[in-house]
Amino acid sequence: MRRKSHEVRIGKLYIGGNHPVAVQSMTTCSTMDTQGCIDQCMRIIDAGADLVRLTTQGTREAENLRNIKEGLSQRGYGDIPLCADVHFNPAVADVAATIVEKVRINPGNYVDPARQFKHLEYTDEEYAHELKRLDERFCHLMGICRRHGTAIRIGVNHGSLSDRIMSRYGDTPEGIVESCMEFLRICEREKFPDVVVSIKASNTVVMVQSVRLLCQEMEKEGMDYPLHLGVTEAGEGEDGRLKSAVGIGSLLVDGIGDTIRVSLSEEPECEIPVARAILQAARVQMCKPEFISCPGCGRTLYDLQDTIRRIKAAVGERAKTNPRYNTLKIAIMGCIVNGPGEMADADYGYVGAARGKVSLYRGKACVEKNIPEDEAVERLLLLIDGDGE
Prior knowledge:
Structural class: alpha/beta
Radius of gyration: 25 Å
Low-confidence stretches: none
Strand content: 15-25%
Distance between the termini: 32 Å
Number of helices: 11
Order of helices and strands: EEEHEHEHEHEHHEHEHEHEHEEEEH
Mean pLDDT: 94
Shape: elongated
């Protein structure tokens, strides 16, 4: 069951509630490079993103978001919301909030100074004074966001906790969560619900533990803010994909998560298909046909690998023109031993029956027996097409 969260409007996009898990990515070029950002945004959106984030280092970059936004609108991409990624300078967030649909701030450096990795000793009175400074500055941003209909992302990074938090809570999931909860309590008091929350770490164990702890703490305090999931600095290639799948997928299968970003050291549009694949593997959203296949063994009665390739290609072609194919789970099994039982979750099955013979299944029921292997793929497609009429 999916974790309960309230919906947050970000332009024309809704995150949380019963809305589909949104997929996002982030540009990598300078935000002063207007055309470069427009081009990257279009590639990201064309790959299937629901939101695009841009780094916003200073007020010049914040102001230039207007030009990027206008350029995207002129090219027919105006419906996809933009998020400004702000660190260290709260005044930049104020400007960006008047231009784009969402602003990300990092609790570790929004009001607290940049980390110097020093242990600081605070009396309770001094600590409360620092929280008051945070409160006043954050309320100013919320006022701007309220007037402009701008959402906020409170994005905690394990690697950028403030010296203040580290000194009192240490480098722990409890400290990571408290860094976030300080801001959320202000949102609750001020009745500002348009907030998405993230806790990220490059360590998948820390990320998963911290997000689960955050969910517990929010529930204790009656909060249901939607969650953004991601493993930050996941890497590139197989490493980045595996770490992201483990961290994001572990939470998705428990019903946790309302939007995701896969952080890869690659072109940003490469992140989107990985995110979609993770959503599908976690059975959160079906966006393409799913294939269940055994590894093969001495009982396999046909060329399993070649058959998988042929079925994938044939089904993929059908899916281009028939959306129903994108909802299907198709099992390809080498023999009857692993057939009906192991493919019980599939909509259709292709199972070796005898040397050169194949049986076809609809769910657990065998509907065609001992078909010649050279006819079986086409017969499978005919079975699927016939059920869809």
